[in-house]
Design brief:
Helix 6 (263-274) packs across helix 7 (284-292). This protein is of the alpha/beta class and 389 residues long. The strands form five sheets. The chain has an eight-stranded mixed sheet with strand order 12-14-13-15-16-22-21-19, with helices on both faces. A seven-stranded mixed β-barrel has the order 1-2-10-7-4-3-11. Strands 18-17-20 form a three-stranded antiparallel sheet. A hairpin with a 4-residue loop joins strand 21 (353-356) and strand 22 (361-364). The chain has eight helices and 22 strands. It folds into two domains: 33-187, Glucose Oxidase, domain 1 (3-Layer(bba) Sandwich); 190-387, Rossmann fold.
Amino acid sequence: MAPGGQRNGAAGVAEAPARRTSPDKPAHREPVKAVLTLEDGARYEGVSFAAHRSVAGEVVFNTGMMGYPESMTDPSYAGQILVCTFPLIGNYGVPAPDHTGGIDDGLSSNFESYKIHIQGLIVTDYSARHSHWDAARSLADWMIADGVPGLTGIDTRSLTQRLREKGTMLGKIEFPGEPVEFHDPNKDNLVAKVSVSRPHLFGGGKGRKRVVMVDTGAKYNIVHSLLARGVEVLRVPWDWDLSQEKCDGIMLSNGPGDPVMAARTIERIRWAVDNAVPTFGICLGHQLLALAIGARTYKLKYGHRSQNQPVMECGTSKCYVTSQNHGFAVDNDSLPKDWRPWFENLNDGTSEGLRHNWLPIRSVQFHPEASPGPVDTAYLFDEFVRMLK
């Protein structure tokens, strides 16, 4: 597991490293049967290949063909049981921790946070024997070390069809003799749980532009993407008072759950808007910006979680393939005066971005930093850096 942290001399305290298993003594467990139960009563019996622990959460599906280490460590999945629609999972194992990230920021380039954030994993066929030049251990050993359950042998095609037809549902993975109750993670302030507790400075350098990144569950690759463009990044907690920081711009990160639960973040963003601070929001950051300006958000039937979502830039014929992971969306009809849609989803017409008519404030619902996924929209980081004061 990739521990988090910051470059030498950074402000704040490094994130706690996750538990690891010795490569000489993998944490193998005898397979046992367990059941995934949905709130509508549907039951799916599978075989455990990871930790033997009952959990509850929101059951969601991702259609990506690869990138499970990045997805599983994405804080946006906090509170969720992830269903992989691609049938074969685990075949390339889990990469070794890489704390250089290709840049001197101290954050792994193989994972998107310091631990697994999903509640549990559901697959059709778990590959117990992995093969890849960069693999350090198996997916099962990694999940066991972090106490995360995983079930194989489940018909994920049938399960996904059910979630598409009826909508995202609560669910629970239960092992014999260990019952749990259903729990709706969207009623929790998940942002407060996944955010850092103190500021961290990355890429500090004299004369550099400074971006304050509001960490509502930020992926590491957002930091990598900004540092690669020559700016320093001050990562601050979700409820940090932005008015006390001298900076050239503000990044609103991705994150989990219902955006209305992060009320204090919304208040902080209003200050940035009122003071015309250059601001760029990603995923949850897009939704939080919308709420801060008085627009509305709503829950999607089953969300967008994939690496092939097509979007179009409004007013142009430019289309991009994007990586997405969200269950809520912005209501474009509720945007106030002087704000307009920026991108739109070509599958269902939902909001994929918004911008002010003249202020340097914008946001997107998709992930321009990808990881995993296409990098078609990475240029948006360049545009943001050019907006900095």
